[in-house]
Amino acid sequence: MHPNQNGSRIKREPSLNKFILKRSTVLFFCFSLLYLPLSAQRGVKENLAVKTDRFISIDGIMNEPIWKKAPDAGVFIQQDPYEENTGRFKTVVKILYDDDFVYFGFLCHDPEPDKIHGDTIRIDGDLRDTDSMYILIDTFDDPINFFFFSINFLGAKSDGKISKDGQTASYKWDGEWEAVGRRTDFGWSAEVAIERGCIFEEPVESKTLGLSLARIVPRLKSKLPSSPLDPPFDFANMDSLKVLILEEPVIGANINPYVITRVESGAKKEPGAGIDAWYGFSQQTSGRLVVYPDFDTVEPDEEKINLTPYELFLPEKRHFFLDDSSDYKQPLELFYSKRISDIYGGARFKGRAGSFEFSAMSAQAKKQEDLGEASANFSVFSLEKKGKADSTVFGFKAANKFIDSSNIGTASVHSDLPIMRNLKLSGQFAFSYGDYNQGNIAFFLGPSYDTKSVHIHLHYIQIGENFGDNVNKVGFIPDDNRRELDSAIYKDISLKGGLINKIGYRSNYNIFWGMNGELRSWEVDQGFVFDLRTKFTISLFHTQEYKLNDFFPEPRLIYVQGEGYNIYPGPGPEPQWVGEPGRWEELFIKDFRNHRTTFTSSYNAGTWKSFGLSVTVGRNFDSIFQLCAINYKLKLSEKLFSEYDLNFLNYDDEFYLKKTTIHILKLTYYANRNLSWRLFFQSNSAINKNNFHILCTYKLKPPFGSIQVVYQKGTADFGMKGTQDHTLFFKYSHMF
User: Fold this and answer.
1) Within 13 Å and on the Cβ side, how many CA atoms surround 363?
2) Which residues pair with residue 683 across a beta bridge?
3) CATH code that applies to domain 48-245
4) Strand partners, 677
5) Are 407 and 428 spatial neighbours (Cβ–Cβ below 8 Å)?
6) What pLDDT sits at residue 201?
7) Strand partners of residue 265
8) Cα–Cα distance measured from residue 713 to residue 723, given in angstroms and rounded to the nearest whole number
9) Which of 370, 489, 622, 704 is most solvent-facing, going by the fewest CB within 10 Å?
10) Domain 486-552+588-665 carries which CATH code?
11) Residue 27: enclosing H or E segment and its boundaries?
């Protein structure tokens, strides 16, 4: 930030067996449509974040008029972590936002203001021994870490990242933010401004974040278990954070029709049209309908190196499926939207009534002529009852594919239950239906134990031998036919002084057998993580692995000596072989002993100031290999953001994999509030693939639509070279 003469920021422009029968999807959604307006009548919430176009001076005093228009967002305050009655310690929370910043205002009442504690001003230190406020943010871009920010009444600031299991915290990350705190006659107050660009990958486009807030009163004795940020946050009972929407709520319809023209070299122009409509029944319940949605302008899937015999899981990028995709996440992945190709249209709904949350989606996929598959309907439904700290008391999820008058799919129940302090029991039971009606059951059960520095879990997973054959029509089960034990022990040791801030030990042991009792695999992982005070993290891991590879991707030809003997002399000049002759056979099943060692070094000075280097060497399915990976994320200017990934694989035997070099480059340029450019390039030497994707977006003033121009060279399909032809897309959309 750049301070002005008054010490405040320079102003910026605000910028179920077969439970789904034919026509069931239609009946279900008709019922949903009737239900939603009824649920919308229950407990309508206020909008908890207010948009502003005025400059907010970060001085610790919420004296701008817009603050008075923001409701108290105390719903984001964590449960009372103290043994004493803290009703006297009232905390008022206000939240504002614009295109550049998210603003927090805190009014911290204290019945004894003279006992407010804090005798030092520090930066990037633990502020939990002072009267302070903590902000925990999940941007959903990072599946591993939360961001945290803290400030005390003296204005001391601290920020960093903490793992979502609450076990590993790092102060090395530096965000771009301002905060000021000050004493008041009622206690103390604070104002915080966090730049959206330091936490969101796409600051302007990102509209939601997970949020939890906590207040520390050090003279009160905490009753929560300890962890790097516990108190103030009880990670042992935290499944996910409540969601804050940085967008003005719309009660009613939002209709967005579009037209698109596709021009491909050597082909005719292909005009098209579609519609994307959204309806807000209330601030808790909404629905979305799409007809001929546009997937052509979506960024391609990124090429990856796969050292395993399993299918790779690819993250979803299409907006219709990306919306609320976290609602369908489970230990057993029973819904995988990448199974769905282009669609004619679809509908989705989401809402909450009391402690119950539900979401549903149905889409009609187009014919896949290359696979000889007819048009299919995909539907998925989720219902969860939330408990303390948003833990899942009970959940039900189902996914179905209806094609050629038959249903294929799965249904499951799951739960995450706190047993006692630091101990949680998780479980899931699922069955599949379709082509196989035996061996179609799977379940997962296991406890996990978490403290400040220790994580232990022991999970048992059983997946029937035909379970995946059904599920993989709609979900993602890379390998079935297993009885599996998975255990892990993590231990962190914090050090005072010196170069090393923390040492982490990681150990994982996994073993599974086929349903017939045959040992199919075991794997032992051991490693250390060194968290340095210089914003570097260094790790060293070693893996030993056994695989009964009964799913080798291609058979090897081996010569099998025949059984018999030679007759000397034979009828001719050569000896005659009597018995079974030798022959060439295809080898499908073989035992393998794999091993690999990985060294990783990473530097993280902020979301857009990070660099990583990883080197792995070892033996994989009878081949010696070396794998090197380099990645960085860098904010080149206030408007230009860059990402780069390099993966290089060298094999001494190219039977299993070829030598591969993969480059991925992303550049995003925000010219102004309305105009942005995004370049995506990737190459994969193993399949001689080069893929360009350039997207230019212009938002019309006022924001009633947009114009998009896309240039693409090469195929966007993962793992395919495809054609290298040139394609140009022009899209115009209008919003009503």
Assistant:
1) 24
2) 663, 690
3) 2.60.40.1190
4) 669, 696
5) no
6) 74
7) none
8) 8
9) 370
10) 2.40.160.10
11) helix 24-39
- Which residue type, as a one-letter code, is found at position 478? P
Q: Up-side HSE of residue 406: CA atoms within 13 Å toward CB?
A: 9
Q: What is the pLDDT of residue 243?
A: 82
Could you tell me the residue ranges of all domains in the chain?
Answer: 48-245, 254-273+671-736, 282-298+309-469, 486-552+588-665, 559-587
**Cis check: omega of the bond before 232, within 30 degrees of 0:** yes
Q: Around 66, how many Cα atoms within 13 Å sit in the side-chain half-sphere?
A: 16
> Residue 462: what pLDDT?
96
Contact 446, 469 (CB under 8 A): no
Residue with tokens 């579009």: 258
Euclidean distance between CA atoms 322 and 290, whole angstroms: 14
Asked if 48-245 and 486-552+588-665 have one fold, the answer is no
User: In Å, how far are 16, 385, 701 from 458, measured between CA atoms?
Assistant: 29, 25, 56
- Both tokens assigned to 332: 């057993």
Q: Is the bond into 231 cis (omega within 30 degrees of 0)?
A: yes
Predicted structure pTM score = 0.74
Whether a cis peptide bond, with omega within 30° of 0, leads into 249 is no
Return averaged pLDDT per consecutive 10 residues of the chain, 736 residues in all.
38 37 36 35 54 89 90 79 58 91 93 78 71 89 83 88 78 86 91 89 76 85 55 66 77 85 75 87 84 85 88 88 67 90 92 84 89 90 76 85 93 88 89 92 93 89 94 93 95 86 93 92 96 89 89 57 56 59 63 93 82 95 91 88 94 70 94 88 90 91 82 82 80 85
Q: Are 534 and 546 in contact (CB under 8 A)?
A: no
**How would you classify the pairing of strands 208-216 and 187-195?**
unpaired
Considering all CA atoms of the chain, what is the largest pairwise distance in Å, rounded to the nearest integer? 116
State the DSSP H helix or E strand holding residue 468, giving kind and residue range, or none if neither.
helix 467-471
pLDDT, position 400: 96
* Distance, first Cα to last Cα, the chain: 38
Residue 377 in tokens: 């309907």
